[in-house]
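Protein modeling request. Please complete all fields; requests missing the sequence field cannot be processed.
Requester role: graduate student
Desired output: 3D structure, token encoding
Chains: 1
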Amino acid sequence: MPSLIRNAEAHSKLIAFERPVQTSIMNLSPKLFFEVRLKYDSRMGEKVSKKPRKVGAVRRRRKPVGAASGLSATELQSNAKTNEVTELGQRVASDGGTVLTAYREPYGGRWILLAALPIDLVAATPFQRNLSDTHVRKLESVISKIGRFLDPIIVVRASKPSDATVKYWTPNGHHRLSAMKTLGAKSIIAIVVPETSVAYHILALNTEKAHNLREKSLEVIRMYREFSELGALGEDACALEFEEPAFITLGLCYEARPRFSGGAYHPVLKRVDTFLTCSCREALDTRQARAKAVLELDDLILEKVESLKARGLTSPYLKSFVVARVNPIRFRPKDAPPLSFDEAIDRMRNAALKFNADKIRTEDLAKTGGVPDETD
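Delivered output (376 residues):
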């Protein structure tokens, strides 16, 4: 029991320390936000190594922390509104919208607005993934069937819209927005966040429809190009937004080749691709060179796949099979030094050149699993 009390007290102190820092950081411009957050994160110490889980052990659900955090229901509107949220409410009104209420979100205590906005003033962020027609049609059917729109979208003020009529960007709500526009809605209910940096938290916010690898990679490279215009902003400072350095390289591959089978290469790139220490603007040339190397490797892999097909071997995993055969990490000892990106791609290229389709048997393919070749 004493240890539980000490842990609860330590957690309460950590929350009390983090909240004012987070609040002040979120009020900065996107460029300063990432620079300050990087310095702040570096003070949080090294990660504690975890003990390996026993084979066959059942994973237990995490228990709630001993001490409650955040605000109670009666505290959400207890303090005076900040000047920032007041000014934001005035802008909403001048845009023809209506502020339904202002409140502090219950976890971090930051002020946000619940507002009705003219639907024509709202658009998806310019780096948003493509719409899923199936998902949009399903939303249209459900909304029209129940006769209600009950799931507000999240929006921020558009920093530099491509369309002069757009005043708000939604990083979470593209499908709902499209469905409402198709249904002829004049307005849409939105949670308006004052901090424009939230627009770059797409991958973290979009949980209603899971991203596939192509969607993640394309969104990351679109954000990457946006950040490259900010100048000195480094890749490592944007680790939260990009999630994985491999998504940057794969995004460039998908842009150049929409039918690219990124799933076959992702397991390798995830191990060898790293965030570069220079700025996104300076690193873009290196990223493009890496994407070119992957695409050249893919051309070679495709030749081997066609050789297998010519022998009458068929499988939805042919490309994954060949990539796995030339993967230099597959049987690499755990204590061996890690391979760099260039080393891994060079070894895969050399192995692919030596790959002999005549030695592959049907039973070899029968043992293959992994990622099916992407066709759309």
